[in-house]
Description:
By secondary structure, this protein is α/β, with parallel strands linked by helices.
Amino acid sequence: xxxxxxxxxxxxxxxxxxxxxxxxxxxxxxxxxxxxxxxxxxxxxxxxxxxxxxxxxxxxxxxxxxxxxxxxxxxxxxxxxxxxxxxxxxxxxxxxxxxxxxxxxxxxxxxxxxxxxxxxxxxxxxxxxxxxxxxxxxxxxxxxxxxxxxxxxxxxxxxxxxxxxxxxxxxxxxxxxxxxxxxxxxxxxxxxxxxxxxxxxxxxxxxxxxxxxxxxxxxxxxxxxxxxxxxxxxxxxxxxxxxxxxxxxxxxxxxxxxxxxxxxxxxxxxxxxxxxxxxxxxxxxxxxxxxxxxxxxxx
Length: 299
Ligand code: CP
């Protein structure tokens, strides 16, 4: 692997061969299922999960990935940390480092927060989602899910649509970088007001036209907590409704959490709705993808 950064901050820091190497390793971890890695590459290593924004999937999967690699995860959450008393992100990270952790996984609402911390600490830093900027391990797990689904090494020639609240989405930003590196053609779909102005990618409001030709739809959550506004016609125009899903045979993804009944109908979100529903496969892939990253950086 050419990637020799001490940190995992952005997909942009990797070239295609780095992504492929991480996917190959993650795929091997996926194959061993729920087992612990026998040579325990994180033995006697403590990995701090510093999560200043809420999370279910990312936080738990980093903790499980650390344990499967033989390490010890510790959690520091925004609501129970001294960040709630005004301590800065960098000060919080410096204190964790002073206690002897071997790596820090960071989720925060500040764009560039993990990068700022990486400039101040000696231990590896992993970006677990910063503001609307990036969520690189989500992109890695999404590509792992897709390459396993298609049975391919990369995504050359695939058409992938990312649909919904793109403007507020760090998942979309990292996925555009990762999917494009792997050879996919990405189209961003959403209402004008939720399409981005800062992502170099084809954008459209014509969901049904895109759906007719795409190999995969990644539906995104409308991020009301970031002040996203949608009209009453959002579901009709941009929701993956039961009606739309009935005539669609491509892969269906969602990074979660899902606003059921808005961006995706209840029946479509249910895992038994279709063999092409990959939503929980994404979650399983998340542990393996994070194992690959932690092993590379800390193991
Ligand atoms: N996909 C994702 O980042 O989910 P969480 O916010 O639950 O971690």
